[in-house]
Design a protein that fits this description.
The structure holds two protein chains of two kinds. Chain A is an alpha/beta fold. Chain A contains ten helices and ten strands. The longest helix of chain A has 16 residues. Chain B has two domains: 144 residues, P-loop containing nucleotide triphosphate hydrolases (Rossmann fold), CATH 3.40.50.300; 63 residues, no CATH class. In chain B, a hairpin with a 2-residue loop joins strand 1 and strand 2. The chains are: A alpha/beta, B alpha/beta.
Chain lengths: 238, 252
């Protein structure tokens, strides 16, 4: 069996030295789509921030492609091939779709190459092609979310991390979003995503981890998790 | 009779309706949990009840008296006291002196205030830390101090805003014990909490908000299996699947 592209081992992490994640271990294999699900405040975003280098472990280790990235900053993990699309989209409201995309290829210097990647992504995200010259703030919520994902792909990441892509979207848009994520994964990008919407995430994921108050309480195939009583318990506390 | 009676409370911020005709009661001697996903309007409702906000519509009754629109200190004097999600100790003062400040709300007698502070320190398991400056406590310690300080005012209703957030499982258990001890001593509790494993097992009743509206008010056991609550927490699609499975089990 191949080695995992991401291996999180006994991770303790939090804010200002206060842990909110206690001993989390997880793995993502190359080509996989893995979901972390759990209620608000369970620690999902904190795990993502720590993997991407925006926060650092209090204890434990993160290996990416065999390299220890526990102490690296976000710009360094990006160079190694990790792209993090944070919750809330965070697109540049006053910049055009094209410029938003170009900023995602921060690690690339060649203008020709940047242009080629933009073209490629506009193929995958036709909604964005129609809006290529429009500034970010004029896009709908769903379009902004697509732009955030596309921007995340501009660095050609080995691992794309998506944080709460469904947040603030109408149910029909959530469905579309999940289809897009599946398509990106099928095209070869390994994905780790966190979601509160259990069914939506576990339907498209190969595997999932259920997190409750900073600890993983269950893991397994998506469908397996969906039929277990544990997942409701993890959200409801009993 | 209900100690706290929230009637049709609506709170608007401009066009945004943060609470929409919310009603519920807190019975004397009970532990009532107020839960809901992020943005459900829990803290806003809490702020309306404690006098930090004046509701746009509706009324709040404490011990039979209409307290809508009273200031925070007037409500606190009547015996309804709150803690804060983001702890606000007087950092330079010792833990004991912080609690003493609370005790002076109800008495100007030094001896009585000192005795009350000592009792609250003990109830909240803060004895070993009482001489430390409050700023030096761990987050768990600060949350317990927040509790002790509120307790020192001799409340009849203690309203806790996320006292378990950011605590380890061991610390959650410790706060649960403190809360049960407080109830034993005759205090009614209303608790806003995200940490479900903390609140669900100890509450007599749970009130669930979603999108500013009360979607359920029931015992924890029923709440944990309530379709609308599951939908609010786990998403509509999962709720659907859950319902189908339950119906399948009932038939099979």
């Amino acid at each position: 069996m191949a080695d995992p592209i991401l291996k999180v081992d006994d991770l303790y992490t939090g804010y200002d030295g206060i842990p909110v994640v206690f001993g989390v271990s997880l793995e993502v294999m190359p080509g996989e789509l893995v979901a972390i699900v759990g209620a608000n405040g369970a620690g999902k975003t904190t795990i993502m921030r720590t993997i991407s280098g925006l926060a650092h472990p209090l204890k434990g280790q993160i290996l990416f492609d065999g390299t220890d990235i526990s102490r690296l900053a976000a710009h360094q993990t990006l160079k190694l091939g990790i792209s993090y699309v944070p919750e809330g989209r965070r697109i540049f409201a006053k910049l055009s779709v094209e410029k938003n995309l170009a900023l995602g290829s921060y690690t690339e210097n060649s203008k020709v190459e940047i242009h080629r990647r933009i073209e490629e992504l506009l193929e995958i995200f036709p909604v964005l092609r129609a809006r290529a010259k429009q500034v970010g703030e004029t896009l709908s919520g769903g379009e902004q979310q697509q732009l955030a994902i596309a921007r995340g792909l501009m660095s050609r990441p080995k691992l794309l991390m998506l944080d709460e892509m469904s947040l603030g979207l109408m149910p029909s848009m959530v469905e579309k979003m999940m289809e897009t994520i599946t398509a990106v994964n099928r095209a070869g990008t390994t994905i780790l995503l966190v979601e509160q919407m259990v069914q939506e995430a576990l339907e498209i994921a190969h595997r999932g981890y259920v997190i409750q108050t900073g600890k993983i309480v269950q893991s397994g195939a998506g469908s397996e998790l969906l039929d277990s009583e544990e997942i409701r318990k993890a959200y409801m506390g009993m | 009779m209900a100690l706290l009676d929230v009637r049709d409370v609506t709170m608007k911020f401009g066009e945004l309706v943060a609470n929409d005709r919310v009603s519920f009661t807190v019975e004397s001697g009970a532990i009532v949990g107020l839960i809901g996903p992020n943005g459900a309007g829990k803290t806003t409702l809490f702020n309306c009840i404690t006098g930090f906000l004046k509701p746009t519509n509706g009324s709040i009754h404490f011990d039979g008296a209409n307290v809508t629109g009273l200031t925070t200190y007037q409500i606190a004097r009547l015996g309804a006291v709150r803690t804060f999600q983001v702890v606000r100790p007087l950092k330079e003062m010792t833990v004991f002196d912080n609690v003493l400040v609370g005790a002076f709300l109800k008495t100007s007698d030094n001896r009585e205030a000192f005795a009350r502070a000592a009792e609250c320190i003990r109830l909240c398991s803060l004895e070993p830390l009482q001489e430390k400056p409050a700023g030096e406590l761990s987050i768990g310690g600060k949350k317990r101090l927040e509790l002790a300080r509120a307790l020192a005012t001799r409340p009849r209703l203690l309203m806790l805003d996320e006292v378990m957030a950011g605590l380890t499982s061991t610390e959650v258990k410790a706060s649960v014990e403190v809360i049960l001890r407080l109830r034993e001593s005759g205090i009614t509790l209303m608790i806003v909490e995200h940490v479900m494993e903390g609140i669900m097992p100890i509450a007599d009743k749970i009130v669930v908000l979603d999108g500013g509206v009360k979607i359920a008010e029931d015992t924890p056991g029923r709440i944990a299996n309530d379709e609308r609550v599951i939908e609010a927490y786990l998403g509509a699609k999962y709720a659907q699947r859950y319902k189908q499975r339950k119906e399948g089990e009932a038939l099979g």
